[in-house]
Amino acid sequence: MNTILVFIVLNMLINIYFIFVIFLDRKKKMAASYWKSSQFEQWLFDRQELMSVRLRDIASWPLNNNSSPITEDEYSKILIFYSNIIQYIGEQYKVRQQVIATAIVYLKRFYARYPLKSIDPWLLCPTCLFLAAKVEEFSTLNHQRVCNAAATIYKKYAHLLGKLFLIIN
Question: Do the Cβ atoms of 129 and 142 come closer than 8 Å?
């Protein structure tokens, strides 16, 4: 149990650093206009761009011998599942809904830019919630409590882990 918590804490710290580098690049100066900002240039997607990125991500997944290819609907369900994980952790610690919504946006934006296999969603969910709490100026979440909540949810959904692992990997 302790090794799992240490692993989760280390991965959360790595993920937080990675997300800070992606979302909060301090080297660029703030644009005078939204239309010239990095937010508009890098993080505003239309439906066609999202679909092409998702289809490219799905096409890159190797097929197992006895499994059928994943569909766009299943891909959306996977993202909804992990959004619900963030919701569950947030509700468990009575986090404001705005923080939970921000964390879900971070999760979806991250996977809109990067493949689902790039970072394990089980580690990214608590990381997004932790980062959203800081950004929304909510009282800082204790990383140990967030890790315990993630471990609890990990146990609760252990029966799904094998299926999701086969789908994602």
Answer: no
The CATH number, out of the four listed (3.50.50.60, 3.30.565.10, 3.30.710.10, 1.10.472.10), of the domain defined by the range 2-19+46-61+69-168: 1.10.472.10
Question: Contact 58/74 with Cβ under 8 angstroms?
Answer: no
pLDDT means per 10 residues in the chain (169 residues)?
65 67 57 72 79 81 64 85 91 88 92 84 88 83 77 78 57
Can you tell me which residue has the tokens 């490219």?
Answer: 56
* Cβ contact 110:128 at 8 Å: yes
End-to-end CA distance of the chain: give it in Å, rounded. 24
